[in-house]
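hey all, quick one before standup. I had two proteins in the batch that finished overnight and I want to keep them in one place so we stop losing track of which output belongs to which input. First protein below, input sequence then structure tokens straight from the run.
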Amino acid sequence: MARIKTNKDVTRREVITKAAATLFREKGYKAASMRDLAVKVGVEAASLYNHIRSKTELLHDVCFNVANRYVEKMHAVESSNTTSIEKIETLMRFHIGQMIDNYEEVYVSDREWRHLNDPYLSNYRNQRRSYRKRFAAIIEEGIQKGEIKKIDAPTAVLIILHAISGIDSWHRSQQKISAEELEKNMVTIMVDGLRQ
């Protein structure tokens, strides 16, 4: 029987989770099967259950791995001794980098999270809401300090996050600019749009 190929820095579970993210993005969570996943990692479907309990568990892992990275970054940015504009730029660059470098996982966590089961669904929904509020609070602080134009902060957060999720079309493009150029252009457009 074939074994899941790993290297010393990656566990079999991590290989399976990454393959699941790719599969969920390609087919959608509902349409993807454990058999499809087994083919993707090169093993029999039954042997997957030595490493994971269910497809639902894989979706949980993908979504919360991404959410935890975002929450950790938000905490670091909030506690940094920088201006509001610099905090927003740091968060934007982080989001763009995640969408470029961890595309499959970020895409799935952004589009397929609704298939989580409670209590995880409620927990994830609350984390998303809390994250957006914290992002908006940085913008509101910048408005109060005169660094940022007087705008509706929650709307600004939605626009920023939706623009970054649009990097999906960059991944699918046949003729695309480099990741560095993409990041530079997006940050310039969005940060300058906020700046007072």
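OK second protein, same deal, sequence then tokens:
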Amino acid sequence: MKDKNLPHDNISSSLEELTDQANQIIESLENEKDLNNSIESYQQLLKLNKIIEKEFNKNFKSISDETNKKVREIIKKK
């Protein structure tokens, strides 16, 4: 799914907010009896999943970079 297809209002949300939205959609899908009514919700869930994945990867990279920086500083002190 391309970034241009992602809803702009969710891109600035925190991981926790995005996860809460995804959980709400999952709960509504679990309660839905007619699968024909759930296609739009499922597509929204896929979009949210992609946004969560990108945000997670961005945070992972940031944490990794910060850890590497601290390790280099420790090594320099020795």
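Flagging for whoever picks this up: Helices lie at 8-11, 15-31, 39-77. Residues 8-77 form one domain.
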